[in-house]
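Re: duplicated header lines in exported C-alpha coordinates

Our pipeline writes sequence and C-alpha coordinates for each protein into one text file. With two proteins the header for the second block appears twice in some exports. Here is an export where it did not happen, for reference. First protein block:
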Amino acid sequence: MSTLSSLSRWSAGSALCLAGWLLAVPSQAQFAMVPSPLAATPQASEAESELNYKRDAAKHLYLTYPMRIYKGRMPPLLYGVAIVETDVEADGAVVDVRLRRPPGAAEVGPWIVQMIRKAGPFPPPAKLGKITYVDIWLVHRGGNFQLDTLTEGQN
Protein backbone atom coordinates (compact mmCIF):
# COMPACT_ATOMS: atom_id res chain seq x y z
CA MET A 1 0.00 0.00 0.00
CA SER A 2 1.39 3.36 -0.93
CA THR A 3 1.91 6.15 1.57
CA LEU A 4 -0.37 8.39 -0.50
CA SER A 5 -3.34 5.99 -0.36
CA SER A 6 -2.83 5.46 3.41
CA LEU A 7 -2.69 9.21 3.89
CA SER A 8 -5.87 9.82 1.89
CA ARG A 9 -7.73 7.12 3.83
CA TRP A 10 -6.49 8.62 7.10
CA SER A 11 -7.46 12.11 5.94
CA ALA A 12 -10.94 11.02 4.88
CA GLY A 13 -11.49 9.21 8.18
CA SER A 14 -10.15 12.16 10.15
CA ALA A 15 -12.35 14.57 8.20
CA LEU A 16 -15.46 12.49 8.97
CA CYS A 17 -14.51 12.29 12.64
CA LEU A 18 -13.87 16.04 12.79
CA ALA A 19 -17.15 16.79 11.02
CA GLY A 20 -19.04 14.61 13.52
CA TRP A 21 -17.32 16.34 16.42
CA LEU A 22 -18.09 19.81 15.03
CA LEU A 23 -21.75 18.91 14.61
CA ALA A 24 -21.95 17.61 18.19
CA VAL A 25 -20.15 20.49 19.90
CA PRO A 26 -22.72 23.23 19.18
CA SER A 27 -25.49 21.03 20.58
CA GLN A 28 -23.54 20.26 23.73
CA ALA A 29 -22.60 23.91 24.19
CA GLN A 30 -26.28 24.86 24.40
CA PHE A 31 -26.56 22.84 27.59
CA ALA A 32 -23.36 23.95 29.31
CA MET A 33 -25.09 26.89 31.01
CA VAL A 34 -28.57 27.12 32.45
CA PRO A 35 -30.30 30.29 31.27
CA SER A 36 -31.20 32.90 33.86
CA PRO A 37 -34.86 32.64 34.72
CA LEU A 38 -37.13 35.65 34.43
CA ALA A 39 -38.50 36.68 37.78
CA ALA A 40 -41.96 35.19 37.87
CA THR A 41 -43.98 35.48 41.06
CA PRO A 42 -46.25 32.48 40.95
CA GLN A 43 -49.86 32.68 42.03
CA ALA A 44 -51.18 29.86 44.19
CA SER A 45 -52.48 26.92 42.21
CA GLU A 46 -56.10 25.95 42.84
CA ALA A 47 -55.50 22.53 41.26
CA GLU A 48 -57.25 19.62 42.89
CA SER A 49 -55.27 16.90 41.11
CA GLU A 50 -51.74 16.18 39.92
CA LEU A 51 -52.88 16.54 36.31
CA ASN A 52 -54.21 20.06 36.91
CA TYR A 53 -51.16 21.06 38.97
CA LYS A 54 -48.86 19.79 36.22
CA ARG A 55 -50.51 22.28 33.84
CA ASP A 56 -49.93 25.15 36.31
CA ALA A 57 -46.30 24.09 36.79
CA ALA A 58 -45.75 23.88 33.01
CA LYS A 59 -47.20 27.38 32.54
CA HIS A 60 -44.87 28.62 35.28
CA LEU A 61 -41.84 27.13 33.48
CA TYR A 62 -42.95 28.70 30.19
CA LEU A 63 -43.28 32.12 31.87
CA THR A 64 -39.91 31.67 33.56
CA TYR A 65 -38.01 30.68 30.40
CA PRO A 66 -39.91 32.27 27.46
CA MET A 67 -36.67 32.60 25.49
CA ARG A 68 -36.18 28.81 25.59
CA ILE A 69 -39.64 27.68 24.49
CA TYR A 70 -39.61 26.01 21.08
CA LYS A 71 -42.21 27.76 18.92
CA GLY A 72 -44.44 25.58 16.76
CA ARG A 73 -44.39 21.86 16.16
CA MET A 74 -41.24 20.03 17.26
CA PRO A 75 -39.12 18.33 14.57
CA PRO A 76 -39.36 14.54 14.19
CA LEU A 77 -35.95 13.87 15.77
CA LEU A 78 -35.41 15.42 19.19
CA TYR A 79 -32.06 15.85 20.87
CA GLY A 80 -33.39 14.77 24.25
CA VAL A 81 -36.58 13.40 25.78
CA ALA A 82 -36.74 13.04 29.54
CA ILE A 83 -39.39 12.05 32.04
CA VAL A 84 -38.91 14.27 35.07
CA GLU A 85 -40.42 13.95 38.54
CA THR A 86 -40.55 17.11 40.67
CA ASP A 87 -41.44 17.42 44.37
CA VAL A 88 -42.99 20.76 45.36
CA GLU A 89 -43.73 21.79 48.96
CA ALA A 90 -46.91 23.57 50.08
CA ASP A 91 -45.13 26.95 49.79
CA GLY A 92 -43.99 26.25 46.19
CA ALA A 93 -40.39 25.39 47.08
CA VAL A 94 -38.80 22.75 44.86
CA VAL A 95 -37.65 19.98 47.19
CA ASP A 96 -36.31 17.46 44.70
CA VAL A 97 -36.04 16.83 40.97
CA ARG A 98 -35.42 13.34 39.60
CA LEU A 99 -34.94 12.04 36.10
CA ARG A 100 -37.29 9.07 35.94
CA ARG A 101 -36.10 8.48 32.36
CA PRO A 102 -32.91 10.39 31.51
CA PRO A 103 -32.45 11.75 27.98
CA GLY A 104 -30.13 10.01 25.55
CA ALA A 105 -27.86 13.08 25.42
CA ALA A 106 -26.19 13.02 28.85
CA GLU A 107 -25.66 16.80 29.04
CA VAL A 108 -29.41 17.50 28.79
CA GLY A 109 -30.39 15.81 32.08
CA PRO A 110 -28.45 18.10 34.44
CA TRP A 111 -29.54 21.11 32.37
CA ILE A 112 -33.23 20.22 32.87
CA VAL A 113 -32.77 19.58 36.61
CA GLN A 114 -31.02 22.93 37.10
CA MET A 115 -33.63 24.80 35.07
CA ILE A 116 -36.40 23.40 37.26
CA ARG A 117 -34.51 24.22 40.47
CA LYS A 118 -33.76 27.79 39.31
CA ALA A 119 -37.41 28.32 38.30
CA GLY A 120 -38.55 27.94 41.93
CA PRO A 121 -40.62 28.76 43.73
CA PHE A 122 -43.42 27.13 41.78
CA PRO A 123 -47.10 27.92 42.23
CA PRO A 124 -47.95 26.80 45.77
CA PRO A 125 -50.32 23.81 45.54
CA ALA A 126 -52.94 25.39 47.85
CA LYS A 127 -55.46 22.53 47.79
CA LEU A 128 -52.96 19.69 47.59
CA GLY A 129 -50.47 20.64 50.30
CA LYS A 130 -47.33 19.25 48.74
CA ILE A 131 -47.16 17.40 45.45
CA THR A 132 -45.00 15.24 43.24
CA TYR A 133 -45.77 15.72 39.57
CA VAL A 134 -44.31 14.17 36.43
CA ASP A 135 -43.83 15.81 33.03
CA ILE A 136 -42.00 14.95 29.84
CA TRP A 137 -39.39 17.38 28.52
CA LEU A 138 -38.98 17.50 24.73
CA VAL A 139 -35.65 19.16 23.96
CA HIS A 140 -34.38 20.47 20.62
CA ARG A 141 -30.64 20.42 19.97
CA GLY A 142 -30.64 24.23 19.86
CA GLY A 143 -31.45 24.39 23.58
CA ASN A 144 -35.18 25.09 23.30
CA PHE A 145 -37.85 22.87 24.77
CA GLN A 146 -41.52 22.12 25.11
CA LEU A 147 -43.24 20.23 27.88
CA ASP A 148 -45.56 17.39 26.96
CA THR A 149 -48.31 19.08 28.98
CA LEU A 150 -48.25 22.17 26.71
CA THR A 151 -46.67 20.78 23.54
CA GLU A 152 -47.71 22.04 20.12
CA GLY A 153 -47.05 18.57 18.71
CA GLN A 154 -44.34 17.06 16.61
CA ASN A 155 -43.84 16.79 12.83
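Second protein block, exported in the same file:
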Amino acid sequence: MTMKILAIGNSFAEDTFWLSPEVALSMGVEDFTFAHLYCGGCSINQHLLHARENRAAYLYQKNCGGIWEENRYDVTMRPVLEEEQWDWIILSTGTGDGSRWTEVESYKNLAQLIACVKPYVPEQVRFAFNVTWAGEATFERYEQPDLQKFAGDQIAMMDAINAIVREYVAVLPEIATIIPTGIAVQNLRAACGLCLCRDDYHLSYDVGRYAAASTAMMVLTGCEDVERITYTPLEAGLNKQVLEAVANALKTPYSVTWPK
Protein backbone atom coordinates (compact mmCIF):
# COMPACT_ATOMS: atom_id res chain seq x y z
CA MET A 1 0.00 0.00 0.00
CA THR A 2 1.17 3.50 -0.87
CA MET A 3 0.04 6.50 1.16
CA LYS A 4 0.81 10.21 1.04
CA ILE A 5 -0.71 12.08 3.97
CA LEU A 6 -0.50 15.79 4.72
CA ALA A 7 -1.80 17.26 7.96
CA ILE A 8 -2.51 20.98 8.06
CA GLY A 9 -2.45 21.54 11.77
CA ASN A 10 -0.70 22.37 14.98
CA SER A 11 0.70 20.58 18.02
CA PHE A 12 -2.41 18.37 18.23
CA ALA A 13 -1.78 17.15 14.68
CA GLU A 14 1.88 16.58 15.56
CA ASP A 15 0.82 14.49 18.57
CA THR A 16 -1.54 12.45 16.40
CA PHE A 17 0.84 11.69 13.56
CA TRP A 18 4.28 11.54 15.20
CA LEU A 19 4.19 7.75 15.66
CA SER A 20 2.09 7.08 12.56
CA PRO A 21 5.10 5.96 10.45
CA GLU A 22 5.93 3.22 12.97
CA VAL A 23 2.30 2.14 13.13
CA ALA A 24 1.97 2.22 9.34
CA LEU A 25 5.08 0.11 8.81
CA SER A 26 3.77 -2.49 11.24
CA MET A 27 0.51 -2.63 9.26
CA GLY A 28 2.35 -3.34 6.01
CA VAL A 29 2.32 0.18 4.58
CA GLU A 30 5.85 0.28 3.22
CA ASP A 31 5.67 3.19 0.79
CA PHE A 32 4.49 6.31 2.54
CA THR A 33 4.96 10.01 3.01
CA PHE A 34 3.78 11.76 6.13
CA ALA A 35 4.00 15.52 6.20
CA HIS A 36 2.79 18.26 8.47
CA LEU A 37 2.27 21.97 7.99
CA TYR A 38 2.72 23.00 11.62
CA CYS A 39 1.64 26.30 13.11
CA GLY A 40 1.45 26.31 16.91
CA GLY A 41 -2.12 26.46 18.20
CA CYS A 42 -3.43 27.28 14.74
CA SER A 43 -7.20 27.24 14.45
CA ILE A 44 -9.28 26.63 11.33
CA ASN A 45 -9.87 30.37 11.15
CA GLN A 46 -6.14 31.11 11.26
CA HIS A 47 -5.33 28.45 8.65
CA LEU A 48 -7.89 30.09 6.40
CA LEU A 49 -6.18 33.47 6.72
CA HIS A 50 -2.77 31.91 6.10
CA ALA A 51 -4.09 30.23 2.95
CA ARG A 52 -5.84 33.30 1.60
CA GLU A 53 -2.92 35.65 2.23
CA ASN A 54 -0.19 33.12 1.35
CA ARG A 55 1.51 33.67 4.70
CA ALA A 56 4.86 32.06 5.48
CA ALA A 57 3.45 30.83 8.78
CA TYR A 58 4.43 27.17 8.89
CA LEU A 59 7.10 24.73 9.93
CA TYR A 60 7.06 21.92 7.37
CA GLN A 61 7.87 18.46 8.75
CA LYS A 62 8.24 15.42 6.49
CA ASN A 63 8.78 11.69 6.93
CA CYS A 64 9.32 9.42 3.93
CA GLY A 65 10.92 6.37 5.50
CA GLY A 66 10.18 6.17 9.18
CA ILE A 67 12.18 9.15 10.43
CA TRP A 68 11.09 12.78 10.65
CA GLU A 69 14.13 14.12 8.86
CA GLU A 70 13.06 17.23 7.01
CA ASN A 71 12.16 20.53 8.65
CA ARG A 72 11.64 23.72 6.70
CA TYR A 73 10.75 26.97 8.38
CA ASP A 74 8.72 29.99 7.24
CA VAL A 75 6.86 27.94 4.65
CA THR A 76 3.68 28.95 2.83
CA MET A 77 0.88 26.45 2.27
CA ARG A 78 0.58 26.47 -1.51
CA PRO A 79 3.92 24.93 -2.59
CA VAL A 80 3.49 22.12 -0.08
CA LEU A 81 0.03 21.35 -1.42
CA GLU A 82 1.56 21.07 -4.90
CA GLU A 83 4.65 19.14 -3.82
CA GLU A 84 3.19 15.61 -3.75
CA GLN A 85 0.26 13.64 -5.10
CA TRP A 86 -1.41 13.64 -1.69
CA ASP A 87 -3.94 10.91 -0.93
CA TRP A 88 -5.19 12.52 2.28
CA ILE A 89 -5.35 16.04 3.69
CA ILE A 90 -6.01 16.00 7.44
CA LEU A 91 -7.58 19.02 9.11
CA SER A 92 -8.32 19.79 12.74
CA THR A 93 -9.08 22.70 14.99
CA GLY A 94 -6.82 24.57 17.42
CA THR A 95 -7.09 27.31 20.00
CA GLY A 96 -4.20 29.65 19.41
CA ASP A 97 -6.44 32.58 18.48
CA GLY A 98 -8.53 32.31 21.63
CA SER A 99 -11.19 30.16 19.97
CA ARG A 100 -12.49 27.09 21.75
CA TRP A 101 -12.80 23.38 21.04
CA THR A 102 -16.43 23.66 22.10
CA GLU A 103 -17.52 26.76 20.18
CA VAL A 104 -19.26 26.51 16.84
CA GLU A 105 -17.34 29.51 15.48
CA SER A 106 -14.15 27.45 15.72
CA TYR A 107 -15.47 25.06 13.05
CA LYS A 108 -17.70 27.08 10.73
CA ASN A 109 -14.95 28.15 8.31
CA LEU A 110 -13.82 24.60 7.54
CA ALA A 111 -15.59 24.51 4.16
CA GLN A 112 -13.90 27.76 3.16
CA LEU A 113 -10.49 26.39 4.15
CA ILE A 114 -11.08 23.29 2.04
CA ALA A 115 -12.11 25.50 -0.89
CA CYS A 116 -8.78 27.34 -0.61
CA VAL A 117 -6.83 24.09 -0.55
CA LYS A 118 -8.59 22.13 -3.33
CA PRO A 119 -7.22 24.03 -6.36
CA TYR A 120 -3.65 23.00 -5.44
CA VAL A 121 -4.08 19.31 -4.63
CA PRO A 122 -4.88 16.26 -6.80
CA GLU A 123 -8.51 15.88 -7.79
CA GLN A 124 -8.70 12.47 -6.10
CA VAL A 125 -7.43 13.70 -2.72
CA ARG A 126 -9.64 12.97 0.27
CA PHE A 127 -10.11 15.19 3.30
CA ALA A 128 -10.37 13.88 6.86
CA PHE A 129 -11.08 15.72 10.09
CA ASN A 130 -9.12 14.77 13.20
CA VAL A 131 -11.24 15.19 16.34
CA THR A 132 -9.00 16.17 19.22
CA TRP A 133 -9.30 15.17 22.86
CA ALA A 134 -10.48 16.82 26.05
CA GLY A 135 -7.84 18.27 28.33
CA GLU A 136 -7.01 16.68 31.64
CA ALA A 137 -9.36 17.28 34.55
CA THR A 138 -6.71 19.60 36.02
CA PHE A 139 -6.84 21.77 32.89
CA GLU A 140 -6.06 25.31 34.06
CA ARG A 141 -4.94 27.31 31.03
CA TYR A 142 -6.74 30.53 31.80
CA GLU A 143 -6.97 31.64 28.18
CA GLN A 144 -8.55 28.35 27.07
CA PRO A 145 -11.12 27.49 29.77
CA ASP A 146 -12.99 24.83 27.82
CA LEU A 147 -12.79 22.12 30.44
CA GLN A 148 -13.34 24.59 33.28
CA LYS A 149 -16.70 25.37 31.69
CA PHE A 150 -17.61 21.70 32.14
CA ALA A 151 -16.37 21.61 35.75
CA GLY A 152 -13.59 19.22 34.75
CA ASP A 153 -15.99 16.73 33.18
CA GLN A 154 -14.08 15.31 30.20
CA ILE A 155 -17.04 13.25 28.98
CA ALA A 156 -19.23 16.34 28.83
CA MET A 157 -16.52 18.19 26.92
CA MET A 158 -16.12 15.35 24.41
CA ASP A 159 -19.90 15.21 23.98
CA ALA A 160 -19.92 18.94 23.19
CA ILE A 161 -17.06 18.62 20.71
CA ASN A 162 -18.67 15.67 18.97
CA ALA A 163 -22.04 17.38 18.75
CA ILE A 164 -20.42 20.25 16.85
CA VAL A 165 -18.40 17.89 14.65
CA ARG A 166 -21.53 15.94 13.72
CA GLU A 167 -23.52 19.07 12.90
CA TYR A 168 -20.90 21.23 11.17
CA VAL A 169 -18.07 18.94 10.01
CA ALA A 170 -19.29 15.43 9.22
CA VAL A 171 -22.07 16.84 7.01
CA LEU A 172 -19.63 18.56 4.65
CA PRO A 173 -19.49 16.63 1.36
CA GLU A 174 -15.73 17.26 1.14
CA ILE A 175 -15.06 15.44 4.42
CA ALA A 176 -14.57 11.78 3.55
CA THR A 177 -14.12 10.58 7.12
CA ILE A 178 -13.78 11.56 10.75
CA ILE A 179 -10.80 10.37 12.82
CA PRO A 180 -12.17 9.83 16.37
CA THR A 181 -8.88 10.43 18.16
CA GLY A 182 -10.50 12.21 21.09
CA ILE A 183 -12.87 9.31 21.73
CA ALA A 184 -10.03 6.77 21.58
CA VAL A 185 -8.07 8.82 24.13
CA GLN A 186 -11.10 9.13 26.41
CA ASN A 187 -11.85 5.40 26.08
CA LEU A 188 -8.30 4.67 27.18
CA ARG A 189 -8.51 7.07 30.12
CA ALA A 190 -11.64 5.25 31.24
CA ALA A 191 -10.01 1.84 30.84
CA CYS A 192 -6.64 2.41 32.47
CA GLY A 193 -7.08 5.52 34.62
CA LEU A 194 -3.85 7.04 33.34
CA CYS A 195 -3.10 10.68 32.70
CA LEU A 196 -2.52 10.66 28.94
CA CYS A 197 -1.13 14.18 28.65
CA ARG A 198 2.40 15.42 29.22
CA ASP A 199 0.90 18.68 30.39
CA ASP A 200 -2.76 19.60 30.69
CA TYR A 201 -3.59 19.19 27.00
CA HIS A 202 -0.78 17.72 24.84
CA LEU A 203 -0.59 13.94 24.61
CA SER A 204 2.04 11.92 26.43
CA TYR A 205 4.92 10.94 24.17
CA ASP A 206 4.35 7.21 24.64
CA VAL A 207 0.83 6.04 25.45
CA GLY A 208 -1.08 9.11 24.26
CA ARG A 209 0.69 9.47 20.94
CA TYR A 210 0.54 5.73 20.29
CA ALA A 211 -3.24 5.70 20.81
CA ALA A 212 -3.68 8.70 18.52
CA ALA A 213 -1.45 7.32 15.74
CA SER A 214 -3.16 3.94 15.90
CA THR A 215 -6.58 5.56 15.58
CA ALA A 216 -5.50 7.67 12.63
CA MET A 217 -3.90 4.80 10.75
CA MET A 218 -6.85 2.47 11.27
CA VAL A 219 -9.14 5.08 9.73
CA LEU A 220 -6.90 6.18 6.87
CA THR A 221 -5.97 2.66 5.77
CA GLY A 222 -9.55 1.43 6.07
CA CYS A 223 -8.35 -1.44 8.24
CA GLU A 224 -10.99 -3.06 10.47
CA ASP A 225 -8.76 -5.28 12.62
CA VAL A 226 -6.56 -3.56 15.23
CA GLU A 227 -4.51 -6.76 15.46
CA ARG A 228 -2.91 -5.62 12.20
CA ILE A 229 -1.00 -3.10 14.30
CA THR A 230 2.03 -5.06 15.46
CA TYR A 231 4.09 -2.07 16.58
CA THR A 232 4.07 -2.46 20.37
CA PRO A 233 5.98 0.28 22.19
CA LEU A 234 4.29 -0.45 25.53
CA GLU A 235 4.15 -3.37 27.91
CA ALA A 236 1.74 -6.04 26.73
CA GLY A 237 -1.22 -5.33 29.01
CA LEU A 238 -1.26 -1.60 28.36
CA ASN A 239 -0.67 -2.11 24.64
CA LYS A 240 -3.77 -4.32 24.54
CA GLN A 241 -5.82 -1.65 26.34
CA VAL A 242 -4.73 0.95 23.80
CA LEU A 243 -5.83 -1.16 20.85
CA GLU A 244 -9.14 -2.02 22.54
CA ALA A 245 -9.77 1.69 23.13
CA VAL A 246 -9.04 2.39 19.47
CA ALA A 247 -11.29 -0.45 18.29
CA ASN A 248 -14.15 0.85 20.43
CA ALA A 249 -13.66 4.38 19.09
CA LEU A 250 -14.00 3.06 15.55
CA LYS A 251 -17.25 1.30 16.49
CA THR A 252 -18.77 4.30 18.31
CA PRO A 253 -16.85 7.37 17.10
CA TYR A 254 -19.13 9.88 18.80
CA SER A 255 -19.44 8.38 22.27
CA VAL A 256 -17.11 7.10 24.96
CA THR A 257 -17.22 3.33 25.49
CA TRP A 258 -16.61 2.53 29.12
CA PRO A 259 -14.89 -0.80 29.82
CA LYS A 260 -17.17 -3.57 30.98
